[in-house]
Amino acid sequence: GLLAQYVVRGINTTGYSSVVVFDPDLGGHCQIRTNGDYGAATINTVHPGQKGQELYIRLDNDSDGNKTITFGTPFKVTGTVAGSTSASAMLHFVSDGTNFWEVSRTTGLNQ
């Protein structure tokens, strides 16, 4: 037979500012929406996660213009996320206990 397993994750949302900090223990899915009050932002976490811990980040760009998102010390990424007006990006990370390593990203998703 077919055995299907899945994990239900909470959504960890936070306000947008020049520095955005997520707690990966509050939910494996983090979400922010940019706004016109701030331009570019840097994303950080309160700790680098536990070995094998997954983290998904959804970035929703507002209609005020493109925002560039960079990632702080706990992240190992392929580069910044250059947002598109009214489009979203989804990033997937896995922790090795020291850093969150980027596994994949999808950009330009229609909202």
What does this protein look like?
This protein has 111 residues and is mainly β. The chain has no helices and ten strands. It has strands at 11-13, 19-22, 29-33, 41-45, 54-60, 68-71, 75-76, 81-82, 87-95, 100-110. It has a six-stranded mixed sheet with strand order 1-3-5-9-10-7, with no helix packed on it. A hairpin with a 4-residue loop joins strand 9 (87-95) and strand 10 (100-110). The mean pLDDT is 88.
Low-confidence stretches: none
The end-to-end distance, rounded to whole angstroms, is: 37 Å
The strand order across the widest sheet is 1-3-5-9-10-7
Helix content: under 10%
Order of helix and strand elements from N to C terminus: EEEEEEEEEE
Question: What's the total helix number?
Answer: 0
Tally of strands? 10
Question: What order do the helices and strands come in, and which of them pair?
Answer:
Blueprint: E1 11-13, E2 19-22, E3 29-33, E4 41-45, E5 54-60, E6 68-71, E7 75-76, E8 81-82, E9 87-95, E10 100-110
Parallel strand pairs: 1-3, 2-4, 3-5, 4-6, 7-10
Antiparallel strand pairs: 5-9, 6-8, 9-10
Kindly list the characteristics that best describe this protein.
111 residues; mainly beta; 6-stranded mixed β-sheet; 0% helix
Q: What would you say about this model in short?
A:
The protein has 111 residues and is mostly beta strands. It has strands at 11-13, 19-22, 29-33, 41-45, 54-60, 68-71, 75-76, 81-82, 87-95, 100-110. Strand 9 (87-95) and strand 10 form a beta hairpin.
